[in-house]
Design goal:
Helices cover 41% and strands 15% of the residues. It is of the alpha/beta class. The chain has a single domain (14-293), classed as Metal-dependent hydrolases (TIM Barrel).
């Protein structure tokens, strides 16, 4: 995979491996995609991956706000198709000013094993971000209340973590996403996550997943949106980052922007964390693997 050089002052260039959600194509984001692209340019980014969410597969897998807005899987599919067209148009229009990767962020609910390859075949994204927002087909990141409901259904918070990392492992094994999104998102509403991540049943799953990521040469998204929401550190937490560094895994910043107000926010802080832990800041560029290697 290619790597980006540093800027003229010797500082790491700004990039985002996961971001660019827009109100034009994402119900919980704001602003148009073209406005967002222009903002990345004005902030001096070297390249960005625009990683819009894939459409929901079934009505019961939609978020509450999507249902309230009257959205359906068919509407979301058509909107996603429009996203791909618009993103490729902008990719060409702004090619001289910004390297844009047309990508998509996937899900791991029931049926994704067939659905995601179909989307990839039809839309030909330049890479995918492998994310997990559902455990046992129940969302966990929409609210604290939903997190508690999903954890109870899984058999408790420890069991929720274990199932999350098992689903993540299967997704990585099946699809080899060029980027693994917000690796430890499951800690989102857990104030005791630092201690919980060290529990043997959870820690062994984390290590297993990291070893697979390392073996396949995938990138991990250093997701800065957690800081914007008041967390003490980005996704990935420091204990996992240290293991990733030990295993030689490339970790690349993602602002996970959902509008103009979140583009590049906390990027300096995120880069400083990675530099402090000894990560290579000549950022690895995500490239999709040929289907034969998945």
């Amino acid at each position: 995979m290619q790597q980006e050089e540093r800027d003229e002052m010797g500082k790491p260039t700004f990039v985002s491996v996961h971001g660019g959600h827009s109100g034009q194509f994402c119900h919980h984001a704001t602003d148009s995609l073209e406005e967002i692209i222009r903002a990345y340019i004005s902030h001096g980014f070297a390249w960005v991956g625009i990683t819009e969410h894939v459409p929901g597969l079934r009505d019961d897998l939609l978020y509450p706000d999507q249902k309230e807005a009257g959205l359906t899987p068919a509407i979301l599919f058509d909107r996603f198709a429009a996203y791909m067209l618009e993103c490729r148009r902008l990719q060409q229009k702004y090619a001289a000013k910004l390297k844009i990767y047309v990508a998509m962020e996937i899900e791991t609910y029931s049926g994704y094993e067939a659905f995601i390859p179909l989307l990839m075949e039809r839309f030909q994204p330049e890479y995918i971000v492998g994310s997990v927002h559902f455990v046992n087909d129940m969302n966990f990141d929409y609210s604290k209340e939903q997190y508690a409901i999903t954890a109870a259904a899984a058999g408790g918070i420890d069991a929720l973590y274990c199932r999350y990392f098992d689903q993540q492992y299967e997704m990585i094994r099946l699809l080899s996403p060029a980027v693994v999104g917000h690796f430890d998102l499951i800690r989102m509403f857990d104030p005791d996550y630092r201690q919980r991540l060290l529990k043997p049943d959870i820690a062994c799953r984390i290590r297993r997943n990291l070893e697979l990521i390392s073996e396949r040469g995938l990138i991990m998204d250093f997701n800065l949106r957690a800081l914007l929401k008041g967390a003490q550190e980005p996704y990935i937490t420091e204990s996992i980052l240290r293991q990733a560094r030990e295993l030689g895994i490339a970790v690349v910043p993602g602002d996970d922007s959902h509008g103009l107000s979140s583009i590049g926010v906390n990027m300096e802080r995120g880069v400083a964390i990675l530099e402090g832990l000894g990560f290579d800041t000549e950022w690895k560029v995500p490239v999709a693997e040929p289907p034969s290697r998945r």
